[in-house]
Known about the structure:
- This protein is an alpha+beta fold.
- It is built from three helices and six strands.
Amino acid sequence: MIEPWIRYEDLEEKRRGYYVEYSPVxxxxxxxxxxLNLYDSKVADDIKNIAESELAYWAxxxxxxxxxxxxxxxxxxxxxxEKIGHDYxxxxxxxxxxxxxxxxxPESEEPEFDLSKDYLAKVYSGLKL
Length: 129
């Protein structure tokens, strides 16, 4: 039997030198997806700090686990792994602070969230379906 599902609208915000796309948790998924699209090579050297700052912002705004991935849309040819030694950033808000780890959570820090339809409806109450 197929479980009832729910899907909220994606959000996109432009920043200086990059823009972010936030895709809310889809029913049955483990985390929201946050994509950092870097288009100005001048900010590429600060990509690790930018990623950690963006993850914190979104984790505190929407209390769900997040996977952040960086997309290089500059004219330069590099991968996130080459630039900062990691592929993606994981994180979530817990008791007013942000728990974040590159590539993998330690077992003791794995997120424990109720990502039910009812919970997501509360978290994303201001978003369109």
